[in-house]
Amino acid sequence: MWKLKIAILSISILALLTCVFSTSVQAAGLPQLDITTFPSQLIWLVITFAALFMMMSRISLPRISQVLEERQHKIDDNLKKAVSFKEEAEIAAEAYTKAQAEVREEAHAIIMETHTQITDNMATKQAELAEELEAEIKAAEGSIIDAKVIAMAVIADVATEVALSTTEKISGEALNKKDISKVITNILEERQ
Q1: CA 143, CA 163: separation in Å to the nearest integer?
Q2: Does any domain span residue 155?
Q3: 156 Cβ neighbours under 8 A, 6+ residues apart
Q4: CA distance 39 to 16
Q5: Of 19, 44, 125, 146, which residue is 20 to 30 A from 29 by alpha carbon distance?
């Protein structure tokens, strides 16, 4: 209310000052500063200002404050939701990390188990292959020994025949087959 009193007092002072200085303004030809229209202009200024002030304070400002309050409530609710979503996301991230670690451990265990099985299978197959190769080597050695015995017998017979025919052709005499066979057998036994 005191603002209204100050406004009316200032309007009165302004009207008085304009009355004092109005003669020089009218002479200059400035109609907007004509003192005779000032009181009515000031009254309408006060009425318009009061009406606008009342309309703003009673209608517009409450609506604006209500909109601002609703907006603030909505922002607060959204912030609360964001915090809860963040907490849920952190929980989900922890669960994901934990599940990922468990899966890695399981995968590592499976890899180690598979590696162990493969190693065992390889060792078993390698042992079986070594046994098969050993048996084949022994069989081959036996075949080689048999072939050597047969070859030596054939060589002894061939050498005896060659020696007999060579000595007959060179010396013209026929030697005893048993004596030559003994000499060739002794020579072959010494070289083995």
Answers
A1: 29
A2: yes
A3: 181, 184, 185, 188
A4: 10
A5: 44
Q: What is the dihedral of CA 47, 53, 55, 59, to 10 degrees?
A: -170
Q: Which two tokens stand for residue 22?
A: 């109005």
Structure tokens at 122: 């390889």
pTM: predicted TM-score of the whole model, two decimal places? 0.39
The Cα 6–Cα 26 span in angstroms is 29
3-state per-residue secondary structure call for 49-117: HHHHHHHHHHHHHHHHHHHHHHHHHHHHHHHHHHHHHHHHHHHHHHHHHHHHHHHHHHHHHHHHHHHHH
Q: Count of domains in the chain?
A: 1
Question: What would the pLDDT profile of 71-117 be if each residue is shown by its tens digit?
Answer: 999 999 999 999 999 999 999 999 999 999 999 999 999 999 999 99
Torsion angle (degrees, nearest 10) of CA 53, 54, 59, 64: 30
Given a contact cutoff of 8 angstroms between Cβ atoms, the answer to whether 42 and 12 are in contact is: no
Q: Which two tokens stand for residue 63?
A: 């609506």
pLDDT for 62-72, tens place per residue? 999 999 999 99
Cα dist. 127→113, 138, 139, 181 in Å? 21, 16, 18, 48
For residue 157, the enclosing domain spans: 141-191
